[in-house]
Prior knowledge:
This protein is of the alpha+beta class. The protein has a domain at 173-338: Regulator of K+ conductance, C-terminal domain (Alpha-Beta Plaits, 2-Layer Sandwich), CATH 3.30.70. It is built from 18 helices and 18 strands. It has helices at residues 2-10, 12-27, 38-49, 58-110, 113-140, 144-155, 188-192, 236-242, 277-283, 286-289, 324-334, 346-359, 376-391, 400-432, 435-460, 465-475, 479-489, 495-511, and strands spanning 30-31, 34-35, 173-180, 186-187, 205-211, 214-216, 223-224, 229-235, 247-250, 261-267, 275-276, 292-299, 302-304, 311-312, 317-322, 335-338, 363-366, 369-372. The strands form six sheets. The protein has a five-stranded antiparallel sheet. It has a five-stranded antiparallel sheet with strand order 13-12-15-10-16. Strands 1-2 form a two-stranded antiparallel ribbon. Strand 1 and strand 2 (34-35) form a beta hairpin. Helix 2 (12-27) crosses helix 3 (38-49), helix 4 packs across helix 18 (495-511) and helix 16 (465-475) packs antiparallel against helix 17. It is elongated and about 95 Å long. It is a multi-pass membrane protein.
Amino acid sequence: MDWLHAIFKRSPEIALFLSIALGWFAGRLQWGTFRVGTATGTFLAALVVSQAGVHVDPGVHTVLLALFLYAAGFEAGPQFLPVMRGEGARAAGVGAAFAVTAFLLASPARAGGDGAQALVTVLGLLAALLVCGHAVPWLIRRPLLDDALQADAALSQGVPVLAPGLQSAAPELVGRLYRVAAGPSRTVSDVSGQEAHDPDLPPVSISRIKRGLRFVEPAPQVRLLPADVVLVVGRREAVVARARGLGEEVHGIDGMALAMQRRDVVLTRASFDQRSIGEIRATSSGNLRHGVVVVQLSRMGRVLPLAADTVVRLHDTVSLHGTEADVARFAAVIGDPVLPTARTDVMYLAGGLVAGLLLGLPSVHAGSAVLTLGAGGALVSGVAFGWFRAKRQTFGAVPPGALRVLKDLGTAALVAVVVLGAGEPAVAAARELGAPLLAAVAAMAFVPLVVALCAGRYLLGGRHGALLAGALSGAALSAPALGDTLDRTDSAVPVAPFAVAAAVSGLLHAWF
C-alpha cells in the first residue's frame, strides 16, 4: 500500500481518474431492474482508493462544482420557470423537512469530532445517492425516466416526447411518390394546397416532377399530366388527404431521390408576431410557402402543437423542411437561421461562469448567519444564460454533447473528490466510534432524507418521481445526487425543484 500511497501523493489526479474509471465500470452492473449507476459505482470505487491515502486540492472541487452546476442550469434554463411555478412551493416543503430533521439530529454526531464529521459527509452522500436514485423509483414503482418524459410532455402541451434512441413507427413527416392518373387537370398549387388557405389542413410540397425521361421544375402554376411521377412531401395527414385521387403510389423510380434540408429559424419579423398559424397560412402567398414544410414550432425549448389556433411569438423557433434553396428563401422572410454547429461558444460559456462565480461572492449577515449563494451562483447564471440562449439562438451555442460531458464527468468527479478526501478518516472513525455514536452518525445521514422523502411523497404525489428526486437532492445540498438523477432521467426537469429545495435547506441550515 505504501507504493500506491507514494504514487497518489505525487499525482493525486491519478487517484481521481482511477476512481472515475472503476466507478463507471461498476455502474454498469445490473441485477434485474436494479442498476448500480455511475455515481454510486464511483462512490464505491473512490472509497476503496481513498484507503491508500489521497489528498485532492479543494480548488478541484470548486471548479468541478461550478462547471457541473452551470451545465445543469444551462440545460434547464428554458423550462426552469414553468417547472418552478408549478412545483416550487412543494419542493420548498421538501427542503424544509430535511433541514429541520437534520438540525434535530446534528448534536450527537458533532460530539464525535472530525472523524465523525467525515463519516457524516461520506454517509450523507451515499444516502442521497441511494434515496434519489433507488428509493424514489422503488416507491413510485416505475423508472425515473418515465416520469421525466411525462413532465416534458406536459411542458410541451401534450406533444409526445420520446425517450432517447426511440422514434415513432409512423413519422409525422413523410415523402411519397405518386404516378398521376388520368382525370381533371390540376396544377402543382392545386395539389399542394398552397393557395387553398385551409386552416385545418397544412399544405404539402411537390418537390420533384418526372415527365417521361426529363424532370420538370415544380413551379406552382405547372400542370400535372397523366403518367407524371411526383414526389409529395409533408406532414403525414396532409400528404394522405391532399394526394387522395392523385394516382397510385409507386417506388423505386430513378432520379426521384432528392436531398432535403431541415433548418431551424428564429422568428424575428414583427409582422408574424402574435398571429395564429391558421391566420398566417391564410394570408401568406403560395409562392412563399412553395416547396417548404413547417415540421415543428418550439418556444424556449418546448415543442408546440402545429394547430391552426396556436399563436406564434417573436423568437419562436420554426423548423423548416425542403430543398436548400426553398428553405433559404422562406427563412429570409421570417427570421434568422440557426446554423448547425458542433462547436461550443467558449466565450459565452466562460462569460456565464464568470458571472455565476461573481454572483456567489457577496454575502449577507442575518444575525449570526452568513447568507451567500456560493457555488449556487453558477447554477443561477447557467439558468439565465441557458434561458437567453433558448430565446436568441443565433449565438451562445453549447451543443448537447458538450453539456453531457460536463454533467457526466462533473457528477463522477464530484463524487470521487468528496469520497477521496473524506473516505480514509470516515472508515477510521467507523472503526473507532462506539455503537451509540455510530448509530447517531448514521441516523444523521439517512433519517433526514427519509423524512424528506415521506414529505415529498405527500406533497408531490406519486406522479412526480423525477421532481421528487430533484427536490431530495437539493434538500441534501448534494450536487452529485442531482447529477445521478439527471443521468437516470435524461431530462433537465429535476433542476428547478433541486434549486428551490437547496435554497430553502441552505437558508435554514445557516440560521440553525
